[in-house]
Specification:
This is Pyrethroid hydrolase. By secondary structure, this protein is an alpha/beta fold. It has 11 helices and 8 strands. The chain has a single domain, classed as Alpha/Beta hydrolase fold, catalytic domain (Rossmann fold, 3-Layer(aba) Sandwich), CATH 3.40.50. A 6-stranded parallel beta sheet has the order 2-1-3-4-7-8, with helices on both faces. Strands 5-6 form a two-stranded antiparallel ribbon.
Length: 237
């Protein structure tokens, strides 16, 4: 199978390395691009970048690589990205996997679906520390994701990049292509700051009878529970 793994806020393609290795050892093709303005592409970050930029990143990758039967995995913020990408590459996608991720609603922005407390938190932080549009990634980010292992924290911290709240201000356009796509949700059950953010999307997936899975870990299972995550990806695809 062809797996395209899309990272969330403040991360980059680097975060998928353990999962990549495991999937490739099973004979699968794996792509883990870094979205514009994050990871090793952080130098490209400007206020004009929105989720649509990242949707184009993923759509273009799938088209240029000529991929078919794609299992498209989106972590956290990237739920918006994989859903939006479906609009242009629906015929090439086998399955959408929302890994503790936002599930967008047609015509709504990321801010409109996540709830007022989080919008207020992130907007105030951007106003105070990030020129009105940036949230800084630091040790507190690791805390909010439930990353506790000190060796993992030491590896991750210098790789984290700031997150633009403008990513969450563009409406996501969806159609029947998204409605008809095969969709799965993987929920991370450890109680972290992100648990309250993501639980409503898990509940939505269950209410709409999507296949759902639970991993007992924090918000970054690709790093904290890669083997368990890979087993779920393979069993559900």
């Amino acid at each position: 199978m062809n797996f395209v793994l899309v990272h969330g806020a403040c991360h980059g393609g680097w975060c998928w390395e353990p999962v990549e290795k495991l999937l490739r050892s099973r004979g699968h093709e794996v792509y883990s691009p870094t979205l514009t303005g994050m990871g090793d592409r952080a130098h490209l970050l400007i206020p004009d970048i929105t989720a649509q930029t990242h949707i184009d990143d993923i759509s273009n990758l799938i088209q240029i690589e000529g991929l078919n039967e794609v299992v498209l995995v989106g972590h956290s913020y990237a739920g918006l990205v994989i859903a939006g990408a479906t609009e242009s590459v629906a015929q090439q996608i086998k399955q959408l996997v929302f890994l503790d991720a936002y599930i967008p609603q047609n015509g709504k922005t990321g801010f409109e679906i996540i709830g007022e407390p989080f919008v207020t938190d992130w907007t105030q932080a951007a106003d105070q520390y990030g020129d009105g549009w940036l949230n800084h990634a630091d040790e507190r980010s690791l805390d909010s994701w439930g990353v506790k292992d000190r060796h993992l924290r030491k590896m991750m911290l210098p790789k984290l990049t700031d997150f633009s709240i403008n990513f969450l201000k563009a409406p996501i356009k969806l159609s029947e292509a998204f409605d008809h796509a095969e969709k799965t949700f993987i929920h991370c059950s450890e109680k972290t700051y992100c648990y309250d953010l993501m639980f409503p999307f898990y509940q939505y997936a269950k209410d709409n009878h999507w296949p759902t899975f639970v991993i007992e870990t924090g918000h970054d299972p690709m790093l904290t529970k890669p083997q368990e995550l890979v087993e779920i990806l393979l069993s559900s695809s």
